[in-house]
Write a structure and sequence with these properties.
The complex is a heterodimer.
Chain A: H1 2-5, H2 22-37, H3 42-56, H4 63-87, E1 94-98, E2 101-104, H5 105-130, H6 134-143, H7 149-178, H8 186-214, H9 233-255
Antiparallel strand pairs in A: 1-2
Helix pairs in contact in A: 2-5, 2-9, 3-5, 3-9, 4-5, 6-7, 7-8
Chain B: E1 12-21, E2 29-36, E3 41-45, H1 52-60, E4 69-77, E5 80-81, E6 89-92, H2 96-99, H3 105-115, H4 120-133, H5 149-161, E7 167-171, H6 179-196, E8 199-203, H7 207-210, E9 216-220, E10 226-231, H8 232-245, E11 273-281, E12 287-292, E13 295-296, E14 301-305, H9 312-319, E15 327-331, H10 333-336, H11 348-351, E16 355-358, H12 371-381, H13 386-399, H14 415-427, E17 433-437, H15 445-460, E18 464-468, H16 472-478, E19 481-486, E20 489-495
Parallel strand pairs in B: 3-8, 3-9, 6-7, 7-8, 14-18, 14-19, 16-17, 17-18
Antiparallel strand pairs in B: 1-2, 1-4, 4-5, 9-10, 11-12, 11-13, 11-15, 19-20
Chain lengths: ~260, ~500
């Protein structure tokens, strides 16, 4: 509960990372992801990860918080690697074979590349977004990237309802126990409960829309913004860092001959 | 001070105005002729379904366009059609949760002025002014999720106020607030009107809240048009009885209190339900109150009262066997009949004949497509045959005036109907203890009277009732004991609170 409502009010901090425009964080994460999904080799991902690690110390997160927030990535990375070791495309020397499981040199190399890649893309993405305030992101999307304000603010307003949905879900669950129908038919009950939540959320959504309209949202005048959002030097620096890391990683991979462009088969 | 407001108080006129929501055959409002002078303060009354909210939404410009309904005649603010007068009217709605738009207090109040396209300096100047006017002395960064219902409502008022409306429209702004919240919102509105001189139109079931603030009452006729219009006292003298009958809370015509035939005998039999050293928590890590000792007797009502956030609802859920105690025990051995004494260890079906729980929000409890099936759910879960299910459902439908709605979808009922249905769903399995969470919240006086009469009957038949409530009238009318939860501190007890 607290972790989910935490989406809306991320911890503040004094480090420079908290003052970076969320749009810059978004762009930096995108640059890294795009560069690293173009090839599946261990060199580009490994180099990127090596260059990223020292920067995590400036991410504005205490070690404990860093660990908990990135835990999903830390779990997902080895899991996907194990899957690839066992089921990845076989090539080179074979070590073990059992039904569909086939461990080979090729599948091991592919697994390492995958492990590094998930970390090199996932860790910076999580770390950058933990410190993003949704309101600031919305301001940035509308003012810097010029996305339509109707769309951006509608989304932002909807996000606030997430906390209410969680409470609704819990009440729905307890209410079903009180109604005497919580002993059997788990799947059916779940579906019914999900439908009830849908009904409640549509209602909440339309109430919110009315409340927003009542405050002049959607009026035919050009909207102004109470909080300015623009890109500053520090934002350019972050994007530049992402570009440099990507460039070095790709260059190292190409020069060492490990680069395998995914679209060339 | 809001000194340099760009425009003054607004005038309102309805010229044969009507509105019909799309998909409905009946007009919500029709043939309305009305004139309100700038700066007038008007209380708008009428039975439910008379179109009060529709009129307010129309003035607020949020009824929508041709897709949403059909309009007749004209509805004007300062001579301009209301739909085009955005920003001239500020509309405050009933549900505090639905009106918070952004995550921080300052940003939320700034939302309206932003939409009006005001310059940045002007926005923040107005935000500061508006928050001060409604008495919300909080930092601009304060998270809106941490506000109480009353604070949320005052924030919404500030958000409206920052738009400098010449017409303030309040749609039952205090209906879902506790007494402190009501007083806070009332005071904020009064201060705002003193400063801005804006025109006020307020819809509210409880006349006493606004009586001293308004100078004129308009009663809408459910058949269309205006039923009565004039100074507060005169209109209430003429129409008070009829309004009270229609569900309006008129101080001179309080709803009839139910008559209890039997009194519980606390010394006689063992309590149906009792607790010892009970600590309650919604989730296992956050204990809301501890060392609670209380008892529910046969034929007795225990009222659980206390401020918001003190854990009243959680206590109700724990007594109802829906949440486990954080520590201590809930002992229902008098009801158990072979089951373990702690109700949270019972199966869902085993609760049905022992403890029924009615949630604050009826919609959380609805699981069937029709009113009839909704009532049948519990009876069927007990494994009763079709004939017996019918024997239980039909008398309840009649008794709670739900029979004409038997085929309707529960979600489409009015607030009062939903409340009656949710109580009936718990009663169909004849539990010996009934736990009710805010059963009278937001109800009109007619539903209140019917509900209390029904509860009095149950008490006379020997049921034990726990009522979690803010409603002093309910406590005075029915409670045999009051248990006050006071923000985690020691709870106090008062016996014989019935007046």
């Amino acid at each position: 509960m607290s972790s989910l409502t935490g989406i809306l009010t991320p911890a503040g901090g004094t480090q420079v990372v908290y003052r970076v425009n969320p749009v810059a964080k978004l762009l930096a994460a995108m640059v890294l992801s795009v560069a690293l999904v173009l090839s599946i080799d261990w060199v580009s991902a490994g180099v990127a990860l090596l260059l990223e690690v020292p920067l995590f110390f400036f991410a504005g997160l205490a070690p404990r918080r860093f660990f908990w927030r990135t835990l999903p990535v830390l779990i997902a990375a080895p899991l996907s690697a194990i899957t690839i070791v066992l089921y990845g495309r076989p090539s080179g020397a074979s070590y073990a074979e059992f039904f569909f499981i086939h461990i080979t040199d090729g599948s091991i190399e592919l697994a390492i590349a995958t492990l590094l890649r998930v970390l090199a893309i996932g860790l910076p993405a999580v770390v950058l977004f933990v410190t993003v305030d949704p309101t600031d992101l919305a301001d940035g999307l509308a003012q810097v990237l010029r996305l339509p304000s109707r769309f951006v603010l509608g989304g932002l307003g909807g996000l606030r309802l997430v906390g209410l949905f969680l409470e609704d879900w819990r009440s729905l669950e307890l209410a079903r126990r009180a109604r005497g129908v919580a002993d059997r038919g788990r799947l059916r009950r779940f579906m019914g409960q999900a439908f009830a939540l849908l009904v409640l959320s549509i209602r909440r959504g339309s109430k919110l829309a009315t409340a927003m309209e009542a405050r002049g949202f959607g009026a035919p005048v050009r909207r102004s913004w109470a909080r300015p959002s623009r890109l500053a030097a520090r934002d350019a620096v972050l994007i530049l860092i992402a570009v440099l890391i990507s460039a070095v990683a790709v260059a190292a991979s190409v020069l060492s001959g490990y680069w395998n462009f995914i679209f060339s088969g | 001070m809001i000194a340099d407001r760009s425009v003054g108080a607004a005038s309102v006129s309805a010229e044969g105005w009507g509105w019909r929501y799309s998909g409905r055959s009946a007009w919500a409002v029709r043939g309305l002729e009305l004139r309100v002078r700038p700066g007038e303060r008007v209380l708008l009354l009428g039975s439910s379904g008379a179109g009060k909210s529709t009129l307010l939404h129309g003035l607020g410009g949020v009824l929508g366009g041709d897709d949403d309904g059909e309009q007749a005649g004209g509805l004007l603010i300062d001579g301009v059609p209301a739909a085009q007068a955005r920003g001239r009217a500020g509309l405050l709605l009933q549900d505090p949760d639905a009106q918070v738009i952004l995550a921080r207090v300052g940003d939320d109040a700034a939302f309206g002025p932003e939409n009006l396209g005001l310059p940045r300096d002007e926005i923040w100047r107005r935000v500061g002014e508006a928050l001060e006017a409604v008495g919300l002395g909080l930092p601009l960064q304060h998270p809106t999720s941490a506000l109480s219902g009353g604070q949320k409502q005052r924030l919404a008022l500030a958000g409206v106020l920052a738009m400098h409306p010449g017409l303030l429209l309040l749609d039952e702004p205090t209906a879902s607030l506790d007494p402190d919240g009501v007083a806070g919102v009332r005071a904020a509105v009064e201060r705002v009107l003193e400063r801005t001189g804006a025109t006020l139109i307020v819809v509210e079931h409880r006349v006493e809240v606004w009586r001293d603030l308004v100078e004129r009452v308009i009663v809408l006729d459910p058949g269309g048009g205006v039923l009565a219009d004039g100074p507060v006292d005169a209109v209430l003298r003429e129409q008070g009885a009829a309004l009270a009958e229609a569900g309006v809370w008129v101080p001179e015509h309080p709803p009839e209190r139910p008559v209890r035939i039997r009194r519980p005998s606390p010394t006689g039999s063992a309590p149906l339900l009792r607790t010892e050293g009970l600590a309650i928590a919604r989730t296992s890590d956050a204990v809301l109150a501890r060392d609670l000792a209380l008892a529910v007797c046969e034929g007795g009502m225990l009222a659980v009262t206390g401020p918001n956030g003190s854990g009243k609802t959680t206590l109700g859920l724990t007594l109802g066997g829906l949440l486990p105690p954080a520590s201590g025990l809930v002992d229902a051995s008098a009801l158990a009949g072979g089951l373990p004494p702690a109700p949270h260890e019972w199966r869902s079906r085993e609760l049905l004949t022992r403890i029924g729980t009615v949630f604050q929000d009826p919609e959380h409890q609805f699981i069937a497509a029709t009113v009839w099936d909704e009532l049948a759910v519990g009876a069927r879960a007990l494994g009763l045959g079709d004939g017996e299910v019918r024997q239980r459902v039909e008398p309840l439908l009649e008794r709670l005036r739900l029979a004409p709605l038997a085929k309707a979808n529960p979600f489409t009922l009015s607030g009062g109907e939903k409340r009656r249905l949710s109580v009936a769903t718990a009663l169909v399995t004849r539990p010996r203890v009934l736990v009710l969470d805010e059963p009278t919240f937001g109800q009109d006086s007619r539903t209140w009277r019917e509900l209390l009469a029904f509860l009095a009957e149950l008490l006379d038949e020997g049921s034990g009732i726990v009522a979690v409530t803010h409603d002093r009238h309910l406590v005075a009318a029915l409670a045999d004991e009051e248990f006050v939860l006071d923000g985690g501190r020691a709870a106090s007890h008062a016996s014989g609170v019935r007046g």
